[in-house]
Please model this.
Amino acid sequence: MNPRLAKALINGLLLGGAAVALFPLLWMLAVSFMAPGTSNALPPPLWPAHPVLDNYRQLFGRAGMGRYLLNSLLISGAITLLSLVFNLLAGYAFAKLRFTGREQLFRMLLGLLVVPAQVAMLPLFLMFKYAGLVDTYMGVMLPGMASVLGIFLVRQYARGLPDELLEAARIDGAGELHIFVRIVLPLLRPVVATLAILTFLTAWNDFMWPLIELTGQGHYTLPLGLASMAREHTEGTEQMMAGSVLTVVPVLALFLAMQRHYLDGLLLGSVKG
Model:
């Protein structure tokens, strides 16, 4: 086959696949600017004839979407920061510090990867119920403060750091915390960006655990708020699409803005591990 023809065929297939993947998102965005009831016409319009912002005004004015958005930002941001602290410390310890039972404990952690997260939700809920953490922000945040995958990613990347650099710092009298903050942490920037994106996306899109943990609408996140709207309103496709845009656009923008750092962290970690 002609190389140019093969290249054109591959590019055409890639563009076609991208168009198929992006079409639902673009139509969701278009519907969010349509007047109420417009999208229910047959055939459904692909673009609003007269774009309006009424759906977004109703979301923030009557549906309380502003509160749900703030809750999602607060919970996702806190989980990301806490997860970075614990995962970075634990991953570095498993990679560079020597202590009794290190390998056995790490193998036990890896074994937890095959256990579905849903299995632990009922025991967690009962524990939080007795501790008075049901329907609280802290109750939503605690399970996401550390993850086996995050510890694994940091460990794999940190194993590639030169031991001579750390030993030289110890000889100069630096403590382990000083070594971690001043030497190790700057070298872990690629995996920090990767872990931050993964954690934030997971926390932002989480639906099952907040649904179990949060009983009052005052603490609802965006996914729970959208689900609540879907149950209460049988007609209002345009408003639902506006809510979906608010849910998707922030995380999509975050991923696109940090895509290079995200991929670098994954690739460098896989090579150095």
Summary: Residues 65-96 form the longest helix (32 residues). The chain has a mean pLDDT of 86. The CA atoms of residues 201 and 251 lie 6 Å apart. DSSP finds 14 helices and no strands in the chain.
